[in-house]
Amino acid sequence: MDRNFARALSLVLKSEGGWSDNPADPGGATMKGVTLANFRRYVKADATKAELRRISDDQVAMVYRRFYWDAVAGALLPDGIDYAVFDFAVNSGPGRAAKYLQAVLGVVQDGRIGPATLAAAGAKPAGVVIDALCDARLAFLEKLPTWPSFGRGWSARVASVRRQALLISAAPLTTTVSVPSAPASADAVAPTAPPAGAGPHTGAEAPAAPPESVSPAKAAGILALIALALGALTAWAAHLPCNLLGVFCQ
User: Fold this and answer.
1) Predicted TM-score of the model (pTM)
2) Selection from 86, 96, 84, 92 nearest residue 65 by Cα
3) Which of 7, 47, 85, 218 gets the most CB atoms within 10 Å of its CB?
4) Is residue 179 in a domain?
5) Total structural domains in the chain?
6) Integer Cα distance of 159 and 146 in angstroms
7) 248, part of any domain
8) Which residues contact 79 (CB under 8 A, 6 or more apart)?
């Protein structure tokens, strides 16, 4: 996937190292894996080796994207497979990397990664494809006449690519995403019983307090007072005619 380009490039550059001008290397003079031929093709047509040694990071990224990543449809390949094919392309050419991927997937080996190759790559487990591709890549390198000179480094590189590609392919399944708690909402339901010592509610009306319960003793006292008041009222009503007419009542 295209989101993996920066990560894949950083891994490739660790393998490519810095300046190299080994006569036994068919690629010739290289700086950070960029050959003089590719530097002239994408950056400066008449560049010298000295200018290649001063290549900038942006120029390095541009060459790798155009000549390798885009050439193997890195932005469209599944996670992990994209890096494995990309590193293979850097090491042995985009056409060969594409054909070996197609051989692993069982599709036509035309060296161009199109819809059929992409569909086949997405239909198989990424780990299976990565392992098979790395095995095939190593078998190819072992047959090269330059294996005695570079075999040890190539073997270590393929092992590293296999390990890192498998990690990339598994990342979406193992990455844990922490979700922050949602902020308190005015529509949220208040707890039925606030914690002990909690202060008053703010920003919302407090619920009405439940009525207090009356004990039996207190109820009896209230009834006694009511009865006494009714008795006094009855006695006063009985003497009302006498009081009003001035008649002495026995």
Assistant:
1) 0.66
2) 86
3) 85
4) no
5) 1
6) 19
7) no
8) 1, 4, 126, 168, 169, 171, 172
Residue 72 lies in a domain: yes
Print the domain residue range for 42. Answer: 2-174
CATH number, position 100: 1.20.141.10
What is the Cα Rg of the chain in Å? 44
- How many residues does the structure list for the chain? 250
Residue with tokens 């009834």: 223
Burial of 112 (0-12, 13-18, 19+ CB in 10 A): middle
Return the bridge partners of 35, or none: 30
Query: Is 125 in a helix, a strand, or coil?
Result: coil
Are 90 and 33 in contact by the 8 Å Cβ rule? The answer is yes
DSSP SS3 for 34: strand
* CA pair distance 6, 12, nearest whole angstrom: 10
Q: Please report, for residues 6, 69, 87, the alpha-carbon distance to residue 12 in angstroms, rounded to integers and kept in the order given.
A: 10, 11, 6
Q: Contact at 8 Å (CB) between 52 and 31?
A: yes
Residue 64 to residue 67: CA distance in whole angstroms: 5
C-beta of residue 52 within 8 angstroms of C-beta of residue 63: no
In a domain, 122, yes or no: yes
Model pLDDT for residues 125-161, shown as the tens digit of each residue: 999 999 999 999 999 999 999 999 989 999 999 999 9
Using one digit for the tens of pLDDT, what is the confidence trace for 67-91? 999 999 999 999 999 999 999 999 9
As given in the structure block, the two tokens for residue 172 are: 């979406």
